[in-house]
């Protein structure tokens, strides 16, 4: 049966990013489990969906896509009239949105994901946390969050006064980091702390928690 399918793992931050977007849009979908521990993402048939061997992959009828941020943008545009608005109309607003998504991917996530790997996912794979790496990456994350603190002093959310894809893309990694000592970096900054409490308490954010 044609419809929306997400091929991924429910614990994967990239998969969760897509699931949150689907929940924000109140869309029906099927999550097809890809077992990462068994390396299913590195074998066929998954490689036919994403040749780079990373979850998630996405199908909407005959339309196929991979890369979580590309998928969320497709969902936001294709289903603009459904659920919650995740975009900002107007060329200048869309440029700010695009800038925010670039910052999340290259400045925030590159650091936050390392902290998630060291403190959570290494345990999942039976590995040991490297505290020196954690300390180094927390310094980097602190600098990013200082910029966020200033930005959130000017608007309720990172790209606008309403929730957008920019905020959404941060949620899965933040949810994991709130369960680690890195939580303090969010709590120490009042605007960041309020923003984190807001975005992680959204119904869509709660639905993807295991």
TrEMBL record:
Stretches assigned to the GST N-terminal domain: 2-83
Record InterPro entries: Glutathione-S-Trfase_C-like, Glutathione-S-Trfase_C_sf, Glutathione_S-Trfase, Glutathione_S-Trfase_N, GST_C, GST_Phi_C, Thioredoxin-like_sf
Keyword terms, alphabetized: Cytoplasm, Detoxification, Transferase
Localization in the cell: Cytoplasm, Cytosol
Any Pfam family hit: GST_C
Matching SUPFAM superfamilies: GST C-terminal domain-like, Thioredoxin-like
Domain GST C-terminal: residue ranges: 90-210
GO biological process: glutathione metabolic process; toxin catabolic process
GO MF annotation list: glutathione binding; glutathione transferase activity
GO cellular component, one term: cytosol
EC number: 2.5.1.18
Record's catalysed reaction(s): RX + glutathione = an S-substituted glutathione + a halide anion + H(+)
Annotated family: Belongs to the GST superfamily. Phi family.
Protein name, UniProt field: glutathione transferase
Organism field: Brassica napus
Lineage: Eukaryota, Viridiplantae, Streptophyta, Embryophyta, Tracheophyta
């Amino acid at each position: 049966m044609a419809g929306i399918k997400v091929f991924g793992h429910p614990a994967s931050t990239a998969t969760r990013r897509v699931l949150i977007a689907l929940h924000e849009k109140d869309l029906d979908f099927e999550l097809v489990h890809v077992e990462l521990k068994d390396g299913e993402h590195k074998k066929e048939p998954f490689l036919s969906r994403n040749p780079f061997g990373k979850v998630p992959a996405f199908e909407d009828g005959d339309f196929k896509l991979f890369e979580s941020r590309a998928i969320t943008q497709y969902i936001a545009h294709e289903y603009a009239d459904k659920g919650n608005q995740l975009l900002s109309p107007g060329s200048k607003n869309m440029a700010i949105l695009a800038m925010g998504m670039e910052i999340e991917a290259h400045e925030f996530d590159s650091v936050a994901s390392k902290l998630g790997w060291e403190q959570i996912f290494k345990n999942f794979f039976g590995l040991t946390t490297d505290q020196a790496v954690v300390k180094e990456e927390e310094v980097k994350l602190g600098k990013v969050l200082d910029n966020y603190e200033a930005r959130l002093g000017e608007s309720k959310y990172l790209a606008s006064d309403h929730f957008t894809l920019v905020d959404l893309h941060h949620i899965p990694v933040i949810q994991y980091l709130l369960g680690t000592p890195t939580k303090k970096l969010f709590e120490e900054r009042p605007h960041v702390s309020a923003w984190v409490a807001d975005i992680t308490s959204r119904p869509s954010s709660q639905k993807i928690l295991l």
